[in-house]
């Protein structure tokens, strides 16, 4: 029998990047109750070691699942998903959806077979990412750019500081130096949040691909397969959860409101 409460989805990232995924989920599944969790205490993930992240994400998710009693988890962080999904799926019984680089659709869509991958340094270096490229883009030339700076630019943009155009231009330059490149994968969930700023500094038009809609489709189909989960009942409130109290969360209030996160809570680890 279906539960008499709205389906609860936990969306997890190191920082605010996962809000780009939350947005796609809210479009597809507007009635669900969303718990958006940022591990701001350990932010950024993109420059941390694999050993640290595997332990950290497991530990934080354990606490978040206990707190939220979520029906499904979305690891809305490419840096984490490309590393931790097997361990997480082994330990938790609820469904886990991980955001990983959208290499397959990019390779399918590129007319020139020259594509760019814009991600964190961690994601660019992962064996998982290399395997994705081998499996789905072996006939493509893939230009990889790893940038931790772009992650903090996106964080600041959500706090009201405009993305600095000259720095953005320099970050994407190696991609546009390839004249045939026609498609760029935004393989960090922070980057779609500043998509327009990236488009504005791009010297020519290309396709910018992210994982938001594909993740929303996957979550919708997983929920539809679970008879006890109710995706019709309307949630009354969505919550943002942080792992550390910090003064600059005040600067995020406007952004959190835009993503319909009306409550702010903290979790002690
Ligand atoms: N948003 C994350 C991703 O998708 C990483 C940001 C970070 O470096 O913490 O990769």
Characterize the structure shown:
With 269 residues, this protein is α/β, with parallel strands linked by helices. It folds into 2 domains: 8-99 and 213-266, 3-Layer(aba) Sandwich (Rossmann fold); 103-210, 3-Layer(aba) Sandwich (Rossmann fold), CATH 3.40.50. It is built from 11 helices and 10 strands. A 6-stranded parallel β-sheet has the order 4-3-1-2-9-10, with helices on both faces. Strands 6-5-7-8 form a 4-stranded parallel β-sheet, sandwiched between helices. α1 (19-28) links the parallel β1 and β2 (33-38). α1 packs across α10 (212-224), α2 (50-68) crosses α3 and α8 crosses α9. It is globular, with a radius of gyration of 18 Å. The mean pLDDT is 96. The structure holds D-glutamic acid. D-glutamic acid (DGL) is lined by residues 13-15, 17, 43-46, 77-79, 120, 123, 151, 188-190. D-glutamic acid binds at residues 13-15, 17, 43-46, 77-79, 120, 123, 151, 188-190.
The stretches of 5 or more residues where confidence is low (pLDDT under 50) are: none
Which band does the percent of strand residues land in? 15-25%
Say how many strands there are.
10
CATH architecture of the largest domain: 3-Layer(aba) Sandwich
Output the CATH topology of the largest domain. Rossmann fold
Spatial sequence of strands, sheet with the most strands: 4-3-1-2-9-10
Question: For the CA atoms, what is the radius of gyration?
Answer: 18 Å
Highest-level CATH class of the largest domain? Alpha Beta
Mean pLDDT: 96
Helices and strands, in N-to-C order?
A: EHEHEHEHEHHEHHEHEHEHE
What's the number of structural domains? 2
How much helical structure, as a percent, in the residues?
A: 40-55%
Distance between the termini: 34 Å
């Amino acid at each position: 029998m279906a539960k008499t409460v709205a389906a609860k989805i936990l969306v997890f990232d190191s920082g605010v990047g996962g809000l780009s995924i939350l947005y796609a989920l809210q479009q597809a599944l507007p009635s669900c109750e969303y718990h958006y969790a940022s591990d701001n205490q350990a932010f950024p993930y993109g420059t941390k070691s694999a050993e640290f992240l595997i332990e950290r994400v497991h530990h934080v998710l354990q606490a978040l699942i206990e707190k939220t009693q979520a029906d499904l988890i979305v690891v809305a962080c490419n840096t984490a998903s490309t590393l931790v999904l097997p361990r997480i799926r082994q330990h938790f019984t609820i469904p886990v959806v991980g955001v990983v680089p959208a290499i397959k659709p990019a390779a399918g869509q590129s007319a020139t077979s020259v594509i760019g991958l814009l991600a964190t340094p961690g994601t660019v270096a992962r064996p998982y990412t290399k395997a994705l490229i081998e499996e789905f883009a072996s006939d493509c030339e893939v230009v990889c750019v790893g940038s931790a700076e772009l992650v903090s630019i996106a964080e600041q943009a959500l706090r009201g500081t405009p993305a600095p155009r000259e720095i953005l231009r320099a970050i994407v330059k190696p991609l546009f130096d390839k004249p045939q490149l026609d498609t760029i994968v935004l393989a960090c969930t922070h980057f779609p949040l500043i998509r327009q700023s990236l488009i504005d500094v791009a010297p020519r038009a290309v396709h910018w691909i992210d994982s938001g809609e594909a993740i929303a489709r996957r979550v919708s189909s997983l929920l539809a397969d679970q008879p006890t989960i109710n995706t019709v009942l309307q949630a009354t409130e969505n919550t943002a959860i942080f792992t550390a109290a910090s003064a600059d969360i005040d600067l995020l209030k406007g952004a959190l409101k835009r993503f319909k996160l009306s409550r702010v809570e903290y979790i002690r680890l």
